[in-house]
């Protein structure tokens, strides 16, 4: 009985976190007011307080870009952080954002447990790839960008997104 009580408590905490996150992230004013990097830094700070996993944001990118690109990249970072914090058991997460050759490169990496992405040949679906990854891929596609993910058991996971600006 105490186990189910603990599970219920954890579910309540997760629900509260998700509700707060949704309400804040529907239209983060810091994104429209100050731009992508300050919004990502605030998102990282908020997530560190909730999950107690250090998140380092490295970027010298400081110009404004098209709103749809800012929103798309922000949502990708949200999903990447959520996945890393929920599944990776990482001790550290790093976000890098920089510009090169008229493209924005976003990298989200963790030092967590990683995973092996196996393809089930019978139905050609990826095992261990949830809807979060598919959501990120879809967002990148809508921005005419490139998405890649690398993961190794016990070495972590790294997501790279390249979007033209």
Q: How does this model look, in words?
A:
This protein has helices at 2-25, 29-34, 36-51, 67-87, 131-142; strands spanning 55-59, 93-100, 103-110, 119-120, 125-126, 146-152, 156-164. By secondary structure, the chain is of the alpha+beta class. The chain has a 5-stranded mixed beta sheet with strand order 1-2-3-7-6, covered by helices on one side. A two-stranded antiparallel sheet has the order 4-5. The radius of gyration is 17 Å and the shape is globular.
Keywords:
5 helices; two-stranded antiparallel sheet; 7 strands
In short:
The protein is an alpha+beta fold.
Distance between the termini: 55 Å
| Strands in their spatial order, largest beta sheet | 1-2-3-7-6
Strand content: 15-25%
What structural category characterises the helix and strand content?
alpha+beta
Major sheet attributes: 5 strands, mixed
By oligomeric state, this entry counts as single chain
Computed over alpha carbons, the radius of gyration is 17 Å
The helicity comes to 40-55%
Spell the H/E element sequence.
Answer: HHHEHEEEEHEE
Count of β-strands: 7
Q: Can you tell me the overall shape?
A: globular
Kindly state the mean pLDDT as a whole number?
86
Residue windows where pLDDT falls under 50 for at least 5 positions:
119-127
